Amino acid sequence: MTVDFRGMLRDAAKPDLAEFNSKLTPGKDRIIGVRVPVIRDIARQVVGDDWRQVLDGEPESFEEEMLRGVVIATAPVSAAERIRLTEDFLDYVDNWATCDIFCNSWRFRKEESEEVWHYFSSLIDSGEEYRMRVSLIARMSLFKDGEHCRLLLEDIATHDHPGYYYRMGAAWAVSMVYVNHPEMTEELIRSGRMEVWTHNKSIQKIRESRRVSKEKKEELRALRRTAP
């Protein structure tokens, strides 16, 4: 029997949460108020059934857009097929929440890693705020090794977009890379190559981490820059 994902979303909807989420995602409409863990649970059920049903027609709610993203990110397909589905889905990625749940869910096999890296790297040159954010958040989430993180930091140093959500994503990515690779991240910060707002926000995000010593936080604080 086909999973009634729309009915499940409606049953899980909470008006108070819809109001709260509307404030977090300005500009989005048709928000019905379904929690992310519930969306993930529904996605698991859909993926275990006829998952391509989710791709038919236009999503009826913001949460259905997110559900579609999680299903695309986790369906049992090759990386090449998932990339094709991702290209079709990116037009729905027009907010930070859909971007982040989609990127954090994306699956691939080890032998497909360079194909996946190349695809998400290419999005940084799109010039579009959310495609550029996807490029950063996907690589930040999926690749933790030093070689790939160095390339990610270099892209952040050499690319910019004036959009708030791109720059916030860039700062978040810098702070997350810092956790595993503090020396190379600090090297970028000290170089002064990042856009000033992103540079300062990266330092702020790093200093918010409980895994950074008080002494290092003060050292980083002194590296803040003033806009020209």
Structure description:
With 228 residues, the chain is mainly alpha-helical. The chain has 13 helices and no strands. It has helices at 5-12, 15-24, 36-47, 62-74, 79-89, 96-105, 113-122, 129-142, 146-158, 164-180, 182-191, 196-207, 214-221.
Helix coverage percent of residues?
Answer: 55-70%
Tell me the major beta sheet.
none
Portion in strands: under 5%
Class by helix and strand content?
A: mainly alpha
Shape: globular
Estimate the mean pLDDT confidence: 96
Number of DSSP strands?
0
* End-to-end C-alpha gap: 62 Å
Q: What's the gist of this structure?
A:
This protein is mainly α. Helices cover 65% and strands 0% of the residues.
List keywords for this structure.
13 helices; single chain; about 65% helix
Secondary-structure blueprint:
Layout: H1 5-12, H2 15-24, H3 36-47, H4 62-74, H5 79-89, H6 96-105, H7 113-122, H8 129-142, H9 146-158, H10 164-180, H11 182-191, H12 196-207, H13 214-221
Helix pairs in contact: 1-3, 3-4, 4-5, 4-6, 6-8, 7-8, 8-10, 9-10, 10-11, 10-12, 12-13
